[in-house]
Specification:
Radius of gyration: 16 Å
Oligomer: single chain
Strand order of the largest sheet: 1-4-5-6-7-10-11-12
Distance between the termini: 18 Å
Number of strands: 12
Order of helices and strands: EEEHEHHEHEHHEEEHEHEHEHH
Length: about 250
């Protein structure tokens, strides 16, 4: 049986890790490289670094930061933010990233998924979808959640899979940073429609929330930020509690 993964997420702005609620009200929570190294040592399965202002400000992800991360940690990490071309992806892979995450650029030009997956392989491509409920439907947004689109969550996720995405990282903007739990029914429905792994993001506030999204929500991995950044739950404590509930996780 494949282990469920625990993935700390580090939203990066100007080289610093930040966290907000519903994508706004950002607070500095520490050095991006140092935090990543700490989480790796504590037993995280993977890390996700998102340069959250890159797309909005028209910048590329900081290649130098990726190089620093690669030099310090020995677990897989995904990098996203401002990746809009095959060349952007190639530069990040060369710098040491294991996967790239594309969001706004993929919605703007879905063929980007085909191009990157065709060149590097599906396992290198994570398609991130930031969505919120609008009139009862989950609708994707771009540019760090600031721009609505006509892309509906489920149909867009299916198209991304068909184009070559190796994983889907779905963030519920309604739940992000609230620590009120993940929308498990939505994750379960998404899982039923896809054959590729799903990373659940948005709403983790307790061990129980993470246990629920990995079981009831059928997610393959749980991504969380606030609870780790503020020291509310340690990765070791979380994994032991999940193991005790019969959830298959990697223990160190």
């Amino acid at each position: 049986m494949v282990c469920k993964r625990i993935i700390p997420c580090l939203d990066v702005k100007d080289g610093r890790t930040v966290k907000g609620v519903n994508f706004v009200g950002l607070r500095d929570v520490g050095d991006a490289v140092e935090l990543g190294a700490r989480y790796a040592a504590e037993g995280a399965d993977e890390l996700v670094y998102l340069d959250i202002s890159a797309t909005r400000e028209g910048r590329n992800t900081f290649t130098s930061l990726v190089e620093q991360i690669s030099a310090r940690i020995d677990i897989p990490f995904t990098v996203g933010g401002g990746i809009a071309s095959l060349e952007d992806a190639a530069r990040l892979l060369e710098a040491g990233a294991d996967k790239i995450s594309i969001n706004s650029a993929a919605i703007r030009r879905p063929e980007l998924i085909d191009e990157i997956a065709g060149h590097f392989g599906n396992q290198f491509v994570v398609v991130a979808i930031d969505a919120r409920r609008i009139d009862g439907r989950w609708m994707a947004t771009t540019h760090g959640g600031t721009r609505p689109t006509d892309f509906e969550l489920f149909s867009w996720a299916r198209e991304a899979q068909e184009r070559g995405a190796g994983e889907i990282l779905f963030t519920s903007m309604d739940n992000d940073g609230t620590k009120a739990g993940y929308p498990c029914e939505t994750f379960r429905e998404l899982s039923s429609q896809l054959s590729i792994p799903i990373i659940a993001s948005g709403g983790a506030g307790s061990i129980e929330h993470i246990a629920q999204v990995l079981t009831e929500g059928c997610a393959d991995a749980a991504l969380a930020a606030s609870i780790f950044h503020y020291g509310e739950i340690s990765i070791k404590e979380l994994k032991q509690a999940l193991h005790d509930r019969g959830i298959n996780v990697r223990l160190i």
